[in-house]
Design goal:
Blueprint lengths: L3 H17 L3 E5 L5 H11 L2 E3 L7 H7 L2 E5 L5 H17 L3 E4 L9 H9 L5 E5 H7 L19 H11 L2 E5 L3 E4 L4 E4 L14 H11 L5 H20 L5 H14 L2 H7 L4
Helix pairs in contact: 1-9, 2-8, 2-10, 3-4, 6-7, 8-9, 9-10
Length: 268
């Protein structure tokens, strides 16, 4: 088990690596959050690429540093591209993140999410209800909103880690990250993140970026969530509301540093 101090030290190193060797992150994400996700990655120092066309997704996944598959608005064409990209990523060894947005009872995205789950994502990131549903233990939340507390998803997160062989990140007031062996709780963040479209979705892209800098995807996922939530706290200090928070958050991602992380990160 890594100590919180060791994880915080790694987080600082991983952030420096993302900025000094910018990972190329292919994002197959929903139409509501494309711009915000791209700006989040750019602010951190990564390079976003919204390549989600069948016939292109395969080739790009083979050269990308990391891949995000987000099921927020899965059009027929994008669904084909997702399977294509994931298959290529697995073949090329590209780490990929699955964000099963609103999975559960919806009849199109739910079977797609299960099919993608069975292709063994490197990381799964979702709210508690999405993680429970993807593990086959529930019917999902209220659309994109969770109807379950984070701790209620703990058993499902462990089960899902066993199914995928990867890392599971449950987002909420306290984030839980586990690979089925280790578990970390991150007590950082701010409620304003839930008042900005893409606050959760963009985190999946950040996790894909951090997954590119080290082969230990448990610690890279912890690092991504820690940087993201510490930046949210910094942004909230100067924000008057959700609109100014969104701008301040993008700024904070570009300026958050090792001192901020060491001073603010609360890992258990």
């Amino acid at each position: 088990m890594r100590t919180p101090e060791e994880l915080i030290s790694f987080t600082c190193s991983a952030l420096d690596e993302v900025r000094s060797h910018p990972p190329l992150v292919q994002c197959l994400t929903n139409s509501v959050v494309v711009n915000f996700t791209a700006n989040v990655l750019l602010s951190l120092g990564a390079a976003p690429a919204m390549v989600d066309l069948p016939g292109e997704a395969d080739a790009f996944a083979r050269i990308a540093s990391g891949l995000l598959v987000n099921l927020g608005t899965p059009t027929a064409e994008q669904r084909d591209a997702m399977v294509e990209a994931v298959t290529a990523a697995n073949d090329a060894g590209t780490p990929w993140v699955l964000d099963p947005v609103a999975v559960g009872f919806l009849p199109v995205r739910t079977p797609l999410a299960f099919a993608l789950r069975d292709l063994r994502p490197t990381v799964v990131r979702g709210n508690a209800s999405e993680i429970i549903a993807l593990a086959g233990a529930g019917s999902g939340g209220r659309g994109v909103d969770s109807s379950d507390e984070v701790d209620a998803a703990l058993a499902a997160a462990y089960a899902l880690a066993g199914m995928t062989g990867g890392v599971i990140a449950v987002s909420g007031p306290v984030d839980i990250i586990t690979d089925g062996r280790e578990l970390v709780r991150i007590d950082n963040g701010h409620p304003l993140l839930t008042r900005v479209t893409g606050g959760g979705c963009a985190l999946g892209a950040v996790m894909a970026a951090f997954a590119a800098v080290d082969a230990d995807r448990f610690v890279t996922t912890v690092a991504a969530a820690t940087v993201y939530t510490v930046a949210a706290e910094l942004a909230a200090e100067s924000a008057a509301g959700s609109g100014s928070f969104a701008v301040a958050f993008v700024d904070a991602l570009s300026t958050v540093n090792a001192r901020d992380i060491a001073r603010r990160a609360v890992l258990r």
